[in-house]
Amino acid sequence: MSDxxxxxxxxxxxxxxxxxxxxxxxxxxxxxxxxxxxxxxxxAGKTTFFxxxxxxxxxxxxxxxxAGRRMIARPRRAGLESLVWVxxxxxxxxxxxxxxxxGILGGAGIALAAVVAIGLLVATLLxxxxxxxxxxxxxxxLGIFRSARPNxxxxxxxxxxxxxxxxxxxxxxxENVLIGMHSRMHASPLDAFFSTRRGRREEAASDRRAQExxxxxxxxxxxxxxxxxxxxxxxxxxxxxxxxxSSPRLLLLDEPAAGMNPKETxxxxxxxxxLRADLGLTVLLIEHDMKVxxxxxxxxxxxxxxxxxxxxxxxxxxxxxRVIEAYLGKPAA
Amino acid sequence: xxxxxxxxxxxxxxxxxxRASAFGGRHRSLSITLGMALVAAVLPVxxxxxxxxxxxxxxxxxxxxxxxxxxxxxxxxxxxVVGVAGLLDLGYAAFFAIGSxxxxxxxxxFGNQILGINVxxxxxxxxGLVFWPMLAIGALVAALFGVLLxxxxxxxxxxxxxxxxxxxxxxVPIVFLNSDAVTNGTNGIGGIYxxxxxxxxxxxxxxxxxxxxxxxxxxxxxxxxxxRLVESRIGRxxxxxxxxxxxxxxxxxxxxxxxxxxxxxxxxxAGIAGVLNxxxxxxxxxxxxxxxxxxxxxxxVVLGGMGNFWGVAxxxxxxxxxxxxxxxxxxxxxxxxxxxxxxxxxxLQLQFLLYGLALVAMMLLRPEGLFPNSRRTRELHADxxxxxxxxxxEAAAGGAAGGAGEGGR
Lengths: 333, 409
Fold this sequence. Notes:
The structure holds two protein chains of two kinds. Chain A is of the alpha/beta class. Chain A has 13 helices and ten strands. The relative contact order of chain B is 0.16.
């Protein structure tokens, strides 16, 4: 696997909460097309690390590169960003004042300059809120950096599921999947207003794709069922289908086998392997169930007390004395 | 946790709905248009026959319906923000004010002077033509302010958002009140031109029909747009944010822009309502935009059925009519009959008591509103399987299949 390029590279990621170091200088890479697992006892920092990867919390130090782009790091000169969107309008005001002082600009000209300045201010403010990619790239060139937000990570190709299922319970299965597809759809409010051909075609295509995805995870025919009425195992599958809807390159599964019975767990393992085979997906798994981890992982990373204590193939990790110690305690002397 | 069996779905009106929306919104839009035309035709007839004609003359009824239409617009707009996207906005009247003043500036001698334009000189007697583009411009201006208000409040949720919007709702009228030089302060801006449309009846204080027809047309259009919007990917994103904001973000929905869009579109609807209302009143002053307006519209949305546009429209219409016709008529009725105690009660002054009672009763008995949105019903009655259909015929076919659902959300 090591000859494949890495889809995700986390470099010396650290996250502190006050005096607690939840994640301590963790280096972590995921080669494209592999299934990598992250394990560790409770409180090892798995979830914090996961949240850093997803852009939900900023790291205290270190950075994460995803799909060839530096997405997540500690914010740098973030305060300067406000200057970027205030400066153009201040410049317009100053130029207007200078021209007025020189007697070149009349009353109407000053009013015009004021309107332009306010318009610019609103436009730049909107830009700072919407943060399109080119704007972020521009900021990076100025040495200003802010981590990507969760939706940016999805846009870049990261899909996730939640440890405790977070489906949209009062929506149907298909609607859940359609929401997962949101970031890959382009219909604007105007498309909706005028019911354009483009919008309708996209909606129909998305509907078909949602049915396909449901069939892929083994939920054929339950598309019109409310998410909350599905059995537990199916809810887990539906969450995977929803995560797949954004056509991710990397799928992050947070304890997908939690609460499943042995048969459901086995089916889940088959599903994950099949997803990699069929979709060329890379998978990062956080899991407690050692059977799942050891069964399907190409590589396992073990965290304990925020530090990476072991990494390697399932066999290597299984026999690593530090891992055994972390899980079972020190052997009696 | 749900232990419901994985039953096959019986047919599925929901699937049909999805297919129908993929088919195109044309069918839906046509039915809305026909429905509105029918209602608009029946209402004046009803107003002309007893017992309704005994309350007030037909022309007064038509005038009242027109005013009700303005509130229907406001309720439709607020429904996007509160009902669909789940953002509690208590300062909605601010956008109504902004739309109203926008029209006042474009269509009055005072406002024109401030802007440095002269519509009357350019158009002469047809100055009222400016009304038509102003419907769109008023919407845009209000949307702009919706974004400006929305931007700093996006990190806030629930109560905190409500407080900030409440503040904004108070600030806007006060700004209009105190900026004497440009808004004429308490007196407001008068002499606003009435709309004008060549070949169409004259808009005047004595002839309510042109305003009535215009309002019906605008409400129909807004209703169609609202439906198309909530059935699009944007509407789905709003509902996802309402249900679970973190999950929505983790599924690629840009919560910031999506919420801003809800604010902007809600505000733009209020802007249209403001333009319409001001063109009818021909005068605008800050005291028209008190908290009472925000509150009334919110009550209309809640009573009508949050999230369901038809329900909200009907709710707004009914509440406005009760407020302005029924209560007044009750006064007259009891006075004319001479019932001892009741004839001394001014029901108009009791309207907020009645609102309050109605809202409390509603929350206890039917929290989803009179004409509920099926999804809202599911959220509010998590333990009950809904079996009734709402106005859109959105049968909860899936919900009916299983037993008890999962508790809470």
